[in-house]
Specification:
The complex is a heterodimer. By secondary structure, chain A is of the alpha/beta class. Chain A contains 19 helices and 13 strands. Chain A folds into two domains: about 250 residues, no CATH class; about 290 residues, Zn peptidases (Aminopeptidase). In chain A, strand 2 and strand 3 form a beta hairpin. In chain B, helix 6 packs antiparallel against helix 8. The chains are: A alpha/beta, B alpha+beta. At the A-B interface, helix 3 of A face strand 16, strand 17 and helix 14 of B.
């Protein structure tokens, strides 16, 4: 204790505290920059990431020879030709015909009817060796995320089911699912499986979604998508198995839709780009194009999408079929649940990763930055208080104001959930952002302006910290995009007010998200992202909309309040000038 | 020839029977050790080939297998009369043992094989225990291993089930023997135990479970108080009133437990074969090979022992059934090629009506015609009959007219009208099956009810159970639903809900409920519903539960894939007697990170250390103001200044010395 005491006294002697208090705004800024640099610059450096490895020994990927080849290709083509004739059929007749094929193979089938999202055909191949309590899912949506007919994928799923039925070694049931699309329809099936379906095959351990649009026999490379909803990721072991199996068959792997030209790159910038792309995909999961793995989130199902890209490459469709075959063989070996390896990770390349302890400080830094900004504002507000005024009165009013803005934000989130008008929302946001420019004077004093910002930043910091572990990418994204808010100053000068207004526009949750989506995600142009945020909640159960509305919007509202020039601003400036003159 | 034989046979029966008072007196019982060896070596052939017809007929008439489901009575009634030595010292001694193999093709090229063995013990003396020094006991065909266990645990009825796989009731119809001979996935054990009170019964039960555990190489010893239930409506013995109580002050207790998803494998089959007098080396049991039995889609090994008394003479009657379902084409294919590699191109069966060439092929449905031998399915032939038995081994095929079934003895083929064959002598027997249309089979009995159960819900702290009942028939089904759930599933019966498309209420379906709530670590939830399910309806019962947190040491030592929940049992009372199990379930409980306790210990220790340090300082140190402290610290010199002054003193001293020297 004596050491602490001495240090504290030394600090007081030197006058460290006032110095630090003065430095607070700059420290907050620095902390945010450190957070960004940590993720983007520090982590891709050699020595900060690790090579992936199979943690669970039982998986043994590619240890068994894959037999999905030779005449299985003939059968696959046979199924594909027949499915090709079903492209223009109604979904119910399509499901009926394919269902009859599955029944012939010896699979129990049923159709999950959902009038809103489309019917889903599924079949359970009961494992001859298993106890029937666990299952692996092979999903092939009729249409893939891009809206193309998943001809190769569905034909593969049928042919693979037939092929699997001949093997006696399965210890887990195999469930094959043909949903209308990989998003709402598959999610609806997954929800029904865990609540109301009569034909079930036990708890689902893993799910592989096959995406092979078109009738082409050959393709160029394989894409793997793994980012689940609400920051959920499949166990790294499953991703590793998929990557291992694919590369074992000689196919190049791209993660998160990294373009083909960058697959082979492994320098610092390539790693950085791939990792940032992964963070972006995680943050926008459910909002961006869904390929199917999102549908299984939340039920402790490890899921990923394997997608064939390109036509006329060196690899044929049975090679692609050997990926799910080998993956199923691996998962089949598991005696336990997926529990080893990592559930929180970022991939810098198919075979490089950083685990949670390494990347968490990046988002943590933003939390710290907001705490510091909040503290700075609180201390500033204390300066404006005369010794006679009652501090707790100010606090109560501040809290009340905050509650009001929280309620307003919540109401807004509910209203736009029902009444999806992104243009209205963005327009309102822009109008509100220009409030500092209006020639009005706030009745609140500067003290309130500081207090408002203080509570807002503290709240945002709490939100980000609690989101940190659950959904790192979203926490990091919000932290980064809302960061400029701490630069907004209480001022009376028109130039600064104009700057404030711009800053507010840039940090408005909706405007900012739209800008971000337009810049970084080619498929989310215009104001689509707002609609997608809402549909992600209604169809998939993705929280992002509420995190943005309840976590970010009230903070922004408070900052808007505080940036209205207050009536006493001029007075205080005048008095300051008067003091100077004296 | 035939009439004269029958006549002389009847005469001899009459003569000898007149003299017989007790079988034990009459039979010359060879030494236990001798019999084991003599099965193959010394038992002479009973029938000669000229007598084939007459013997098979008389066996037919006197067979214990008149009705597969009503076997038990037969042994009792006819056993005494027929167990007679025809020619003393010439004919071999025959024992109350019989066996039968039934083969029944099922839809979609499946085939059910049912091995049935029955035996009974010699007379027991009531009130005399195995351990009594003057006890006199013979074991003939009844397994010696079992009898002492039954005696010292005072077990009057014993039922063991080892079942694995999924019985596809929708396609295969009723379970064999109306479901009375198969359990849920894993091991199931229930017994009627005589005891003066429940505690004694439970003690006996535990020692029974532990003994059987060793006998059957299975983890039956994991049955404990947490898993044991005392069924009220289900599992009731069929002939309750005739159950003997050896001591009239005692009561009978029906106790049951199940181990869900206990793996069943060869080491469990071997003890089953060891219990047979033929030891799997003769008769139909010679077909039983672990590789083939456990390669089946569904298999069930069961043992039922009952005590039956007539006056003071009591006997154990034992039925041992080993049943399985094969997929015939894949079993045959595996016999040829163990790995199901892709077929050769010319072996592909393509649908001619769809595009097909050397690149493309839409597969045809499975072939309708079939031809195979039993030896191909089981990997070996039947090695003769069980010659120590009163009755020769029988093999029956339950097929429709579309099938042709032959038995081959050596090179000669035989057929019969009813497709039942008698296995004789020590010859190798094989069965040949041939059919033009495998879909044309003896119509399986429709299952009166379909029940499926699944876990519902989201997350680690709570969940739900959903049981779907479907009555496909035109009659209302009355049934009992039995469920025993582990205590860590905290059931809320108040959340019981009924989903039904026709608007049924809970009161319409559940007629009565027996509910014994769980006690942590002491008792499972015991739930029995009397149900009445209207004709042609489907309904779902669902209820919610909370998942309890286990104690640190209660988690399995290794990472596990979840906690097994045993299957629910549905006993249909009307319109037919039928019993079935749902599939087992896998419950995942939240599992803590087991490094957490150490983190907690480290954190608490640190905090306690800090608190202690502060408190200790406050108690032993003097409180001074900062000014005082500053004064004091400025008066107290630091190490640096002390060193400096020390050196300067030395320097000064050195200087002084020099000065002094100079002065000198």
């Amino acid at each position: 204790m004596a050491l602490l005491e001495r240090l504290q006294r030394r600090a007081t002697d030197v006058g460290l505290l006032p110095w630090l208090v003065q430095l607070l705004p700059r420290l907050a800024l620095l902390s945010g920059l450190v957070g960004l640099a940590w993720l983007a610059l520090w982590l891709p450096l050699e020595g900060n990431y690790r090579h992936t490895y199979i943690s669970e020994n039982a998986l043994m990927p590619s240890q068994a020879y894959s037999y999905f080849r030779e005449t299985e290709w003939n059968l696959l083509r046979g199924f594909r030709t027949q499915i090709k004739q079903l492209v223009n059929e109604t979904s119910s007749s399509r499901n009926e015909i394919v269902g009859s094929w599955l029944e012939e193979i010896g699979v129990k089938t049923a159709i999950h009817t959902d009038s809103d999202n489309g019917d889903t055909l599924y079949g359970v191949l009961h494992a001859p060796r298993g106890d029937g309590t666990e299952a692996m899912v092979l999903a092939a949506p009729w249409h893939n995320g891009d809206g193309d007919f998943n001809l190769g994928g569905t034909a593969l799923a049928t042919a693979l089911t037939r092929y699997f039925s001949r093997w006696p070694l399965w210890s887990k049931n195999i469930i094959v699912v043909f949903s209308e699309d990989p998003k709402a329809s598959l999610r609806s099936w997954c929800n029904a499986y865990h609540s109301s379906l009569d034909l079930t095959g036990g708890s689902i351990e893993s799910a592989v979604v096959l995406d092979y649009p078109g009738a082409n026999d050959f393709f160029k490379y394989v894409e793997i998508y793994y980012a689940g909803l609400n920051g959920e990721l499949p166990n790294l072991d499953l991703v590793n198995v998929a990557v291992h199996v694919t590369e074992h068959e000689g196919m190049p792997v791209s993660i998160n839709g990294n373009p083909e030209s960058e697959i082979g790159d492994s320098d610092f910038y390539a790693k950085m780009r791939k990792m940032l792309l992964g963070v972006q995909k995680m943050a926008l999961s459910g909002v961006q194009t869904c390929y199917g793995n999102e549908a299984f989130s939340g039920y402790r199902i490890q899921s990923l999408v394997v997608k064939a890209r390109g036509t006329g490459g060196p690899f044929d469709i049975t090679t692609f079929g050997r990926i799910p075959e080998a993956m199923f063989r691996s998962v089949n070996n598991l005696l336990e649940k997926f529990h080893q390896s990592f559930f929180f990770y970022l991939l810098l390349a198919p075979r490089y990763f950083v685990s949670i302890a390494s990347y968490l400080p990046a988002a943590g830094a933003f939390s710290v930055s907001f705490i510091l900004a909040g503290l700075d504002n609180y201390l500033n507000s204390a300066k404006g208080l005369s010794s006679t005024s009652n501090s707790s009165y100010y606090s109560v009013v501040t809290i009340l104001a905050f509650v009001v803005s929280l309620l307003a934000a919540f109401t807004l989130s509910q209203v736009f959930l029902q009444w999806t008008k992104p243009l209205v929302l963005v327009t309102i946001s822009l109008l509100v952002s220009s409030v500092p420019l209006l020639p009005i004077k706030s009745k609140f004093t500067t003290v309130y302006a500081y207090r408002f910002k203080s509570i807002a930043f503290m709240y945002l910091s709490v939100v980000l910290t609690s989101l940190l572990v659950v959904n790192f990418a979203l926490a990091f994204g919000i932290g980064l995009l809302a960061f400029p808010m701490i630069l907004i100053k209480n001022t009376n000068s028109l130039k600064l007010r104009f700057k404030n207004s711009l800053m507010l526009m840039a940090t408005n949750p909706f405007v900012c998200t739209c800008i971000f989506a337009n810049v970084f995600e080619a498929r989310l142009q215009g104001l689509v992202v707002i609609e997608r945020l809402i549909s992600a909640w209604t169809q998939l159960g993705c929280w992002s909309w509420f995190v943005i509305c309840i976590g970010w919007l009230p903070v922004w509202l408070m900052v808007v309040f505080s940036s209205i020039p207050s009536a006493d601003e001029r007075r205080s400036v005048q008095s300051a000038n008067a003091k100077k003159l004296q | 020839m035939r009439t004269s034989f029958v006549f002389s046979w009847a005469l001899l029966v009459a003569q000898t029977y007149a003299n017989v008072t007790s079988i034990d007196e009459e039979l010359i019982i060879p030494n236990e050790t001798d019999t084991a060896g003599t099965v193959f070596e010394t038992c002479p052939i009973v029938t000669t080939s000229s007598e084939t017809d007459s013997t098979s007929e008389s066996l037919e008439a006197g067979s214990l297998f008149n009705d597969t489901t009503e076997l038990d009575g037969a042994v009792n009634e006819e056993g005494e009369g027929d167990r007679v030595v025809l020619f003393e010292n010439v004919e071999p001694i025959k024992y109350p043992f019989q066996e039968k193999l039934t083969l029944k093709p099922l839809p979609r090229n499946f085939m059910a094989a049912s091995f049935q063995f029955q035996m009974s013990s010699n007379n027991l003396t009531v009130g005399e225990a195995e351990s009594d020094f003057d006890a006199y006991r013979h074991y003939t065909v009844f397994p010696k291993a079992l009898s002492p266990i039954l005696e010292y645990t005072q077990t009057r009825q014993l039922h063991i089930r080892f079942t694995h796989g999924r019985w596809d009731a929708e396609s295969w119809g009723q379970l064999p023997h109306r479901g009375s001979k198969s359990g849920g996935n894993g091991v199931e054990l229930w017994a009627v135990i005589e005891a003066s009170n429940k505690n004694e019964a439970f003690d006996n039960w535990i020692s029974l479970a532990n003994s059987l555990s060793g006998l059957f190489c299975s983890s039956i010893n994991f049955i404990d108080i947490e898993k044991t239930t005392y069924p009220v409506l289900s599992f009731q013995p069929a002939k309750k009133e005739s159950m003997p109580i050896f001591n009239s002050s005692n009561h009978l207790f029906l106790i049951r437990a199940a181990l869900a998803n206990e793996p069943i494998c060869t080491e469990n089959l071997t003890p089953f074969l060891k219990l047979l007098p033929t030891r799997g080396r003769a008769g139909i049991s010679s077909l039983l090979d672990g590789h083939k039995v456990f390669d089946s889609n569904w298999h069930s090994l069961s043992i039922d022992v009952e005590t039956r008394c007539e006056g003071i003479h009591c006997k154990y009657y034992m039925e041992e059934y080993i049943e399985m379902v094969f997929n015939v084409p894949s079993s045959l294919a595996r016999a040829d090629k163990p790995i199901p590699k892709p077929l050769q191109e010319d072996a592909l069966m393509c649908d001619e009506s769809k595009p097909h060439d050397s690149y493309e092929c839409f597969p045809l449905p499975q072939r309708k015609e079939t031809k195979f031998e039993l030896s191909k399915l089981f990997g070996k032939k039947i090695i003769g009959s069980s010659l120590i038995s009163e009755y020769p081994s029988k093999v029956c095929a339950v097929v429709s007219d579309a099938w042709n079934v032959l038995i081959s003895v050596g090179d000669v083929f035989y057929s019969t009208d009813d497709n039942c064959f008698t296995v004789k002598d020590k010859e190798l027997h094989d069965l040949h099956f041939e059919s033009e249309n495998t879909a044309d089979i003896a119509e399986p009995d429709k299952a009166p009810i379909f029940v499926s159960r699944s876990l519902t819900g989201y997350g680690q702290d709570s969940g739900g159970l959903r049981v779907v009942f479907r009555n496909p028939g035109n009659e209302t089904v009355t049934a009992v639903y039995f469920e025993s759930l582990p205590w860590y599933m905290r059931l809320y019966l108040s959340s019981l809900k009924l989903e039904s498309e026709v608007g049924l209420e809970i009161e319409d379906v559940i007629k009565s409920t027996f509910y014994l709530p769980a006690i942590d670590r002491e008792r499972p939830t015991h739930l029995e519903f009397s149900l009445s399910i209207p004709a042609n309806t489907s309904l779902a019962l669902s209820y919610q539960f909370d998942k309890a947190l286990l104690k640190y040491a209660e988690y399995p030592p290794d990472a596990n894939h979840g906690f097994e929940i045993e299957s629910a049992v549905v006993t249909v009372i009307e319109p037919t007697q039928y019993e079935m199990r749902t599939s087992t379930l896998l419950l995942s409980l939240s599992t803590p990170d087991f490094s957490m306790p150490y983190n907690v210990i480290i954190l608490t220790s640190t905090i306690m250390g800090l608190a202690f340090g502060t408190l200790y300082n406050l108690m032993v140190k003097r409180l001074v103001t900062i000014e005082e402290a500053d004064k004091k610290s400025s008066s107290r010199r630091g190490l640096k200044s002390r060193l400096l002054s020390f050196f300067s003193r030395i320097k000064r001293n050195g200087g002084k010395v020099d000065v002094e020297k100079k002065q000198q």
